[in-house]
Design brief:
Blueprint: E1 2-7, E2 10-13, E3 18-26, E4 33-39, E5 46-51, E6 59-60, E7 68-73, E8 78-83, E9 92-99, E10 113-114, E11 118-123
Parallel strand pairs: 2-11
Antiparallel strand pairs: 1-3, 3-8, 4-5, 4-9, 5-6, 7-8, 9-10, 9-11
Length: 124
C-alpha cells in the first residue's frame, strides 16, 4: 500500500499560480502511475492530469491542458501539480491518486489509493 497526502492548496486570485504537492509513504512510490483529480461541490470527480511511473507520458484533461503541469520526483516520493493562470472554475478540492497501472490513467475508478484532498479557491 501507499499513503498519500496533499499540500499547497489555498486561496489565489484569478490569473495567479499555485503548486500542489503530494507526498507518498509506504510501499515504493516510484512503481505507481500517478494522477491528479478535482471535485467541485457535488459535481463528478474530474480528471486533471496523470503520468507514468518514470515521470514521462504526461497527459491532461481538456480544461487544464496548457495551464497545468504534472511532474514527480521519485527520490522525494513526491508528485507535483503546477497550476498557472488559475480561473474561478478551477476552484475545487484537488486529490492525488496512485494506480498500479504504471502508465497512469484518466479514469478515477482505476486508482487504488487516494489522498484526503486539498482545497483550491480562485477568487474573481
Amino acid at each position: 500500500q501507499v499513503q498519500l497526502a496533499e499540500y499547497g492548496g489555498g486561496l489565489v486570485q484569478t490569473g495567479g499560480s499555485l503548486r500542489l504537492s503530494c507526498v507518498g509513504s509506504g510501499e515504493a512510490f516510484s512503481k505507481y502511475g500517478m494522477g491528479w483529480f478535482r471535485q467541485a461541490g457535488e459535481k463528478e470527480r474530474e480528471f486533471v492530469a496523470a503520468l507514468r511511473w518514470a515521470g514521462d507520458a504526461q497527459h491532461y484533461g481538456e480544461s487544464t491542458k496548457g495551464r497545468f503541469r504534472i511532474s514527480r520526483d521519485n527520490a522525494k516520493n513526491t508528485l507535483y501539480l503546477q497550476m498557472n493562470n488559475l480561473q474561478p472554475e478551477d476552484t475545487a478540492v484537488y486529490y492525488c491518486a496512485a494506480t498500479t497501472n504504471s502508465i497512469g490513467t484518466r479514469f478515477p475508478n482505476l486508482y487504488q489509493y487516494w489522498g484526503q484532498g486539498t482545497q483550491v479557491t480562485v477568487s474573481s
